[in-house]
Design brief:
Helix content: 10-25%
CATH superfamily: Cysteine proteinases
Strand content: 35-45%
Structural class: mainly beta
Largest sheet: 8 strands, mixed
Pfam families: UCH
Distance between the termini: 33 Å
Keywords: Hydrolase
Catalytic activity: Thiol-dependent hydrolysis of ester, thioester, amide, peptide and isopeptide bonds formed by the C-terminal Gly of ubiquitin (a 76-residue protein attached to proteins as an intracellular targeting signal)
InterPro entries: Papain-like_cys_pep_sf, Peptidase_C19_UCH, Ub_carboxyl-term_hydrolase, USP
CATH architecture: Alpha-Beta Complex
Oligomer: single chain
CATH class: Alpha Beta
GO molecular function, one term: cysteine-type deubiquitinase activity
Number of domains: 1
């Protein structure tokens, strides 16, 4: 993965001084190549208001909206104690398996908060070709992934519980595991959960041909 980083001047500086600093090499964009164990997907801030019927709104976001973080063009600001940076990311390789970690939890000095936003995602046929840099797209014949496992967090950050959805390859059926309980689950029910960690498997050429047959 390529990570492009650009340092930002302090926001309280006068505009002229900011413009001068941006000319310095220290504030020019830099690129580094990095490996990754998983991809962190950032959720938008959940709304705090209710709808016209005074019911709490359950926010939703499409998977491809939060995957845009890795399209090589989307910029996000990152803050440290002393400095601010703009970063953008672009994938340069697609491994046989991908792990998505949906960032639901944020921690401050006092407590941990959870974002309840539901991520809308298809179970199969997720094509990630557009997140590859152009020069390496030709090296990837297969860029389509299918979900094979989905870890869900239910409840409050400190008191919640976990459920796991797992695909049985032999039968093509989905199962839900919680503690020692194993039950069948319909694929469409998986997308209604507060997904936290997902494992996706890249289709191989023979699998792609079977899907198209």
């Amino acid at each position: 993965m390529r990570i492009f980083t650009k340092k930002l001047p302090h926001p309280d500086l006068p505009a002229e001084e900011k413009a001068q600093l941006l000319q310095n090499s220290e504030y020019q964009e830099m690129m580094v190549e990095s490996t990754f164990m998983y991809l962190t997907l950032d959720l938008p801030t959940a709304p705090l208001y209710k709808d016209e019927k005074e019911q709490l709104i359950i926010p939703q976001v499409p998977l491809f909206s939060i995957l845009a973080k890795f399209n090589g063009a989307t910029e996000k600001e990152y803050k440290t104690y002393k400095e601010n940076f703009l970063k953008r990311f672009q994938l340069t390789k697609l491994p046989p398996y991908l792990i998505f970690c949906i960032k639901r939890f944020t921690k401050n000095n006092f407590f941990v908060e959870k974002n309840p936003t539901i991520v809308n995602f298809p179970i199969t046929n997720v094509d990630l070709r557009e997140y590859l840099s152009e020069e390496v797209q030709a090296a990837h014949a297969n860029t389509t992934y299918d979900l094979i496992a989905n870890i869900v967090h239910d409840g409050k950050p400190s008191e919640g519980s976990y459920r796991i959805h797992v695909l049985h390859h032999g039968t093509g059926k989905w199962y839900e595991l919680q503690d020692l309980q194993v039950t069948d689950i319909l694929p469409q029910m998986i997308t209604l959960s507060e997904a936290y960690i997902q494992i996706w498997k890249r289709r191989e050429e023979d699998e792609t041909n079977q899907q198209g047959a």
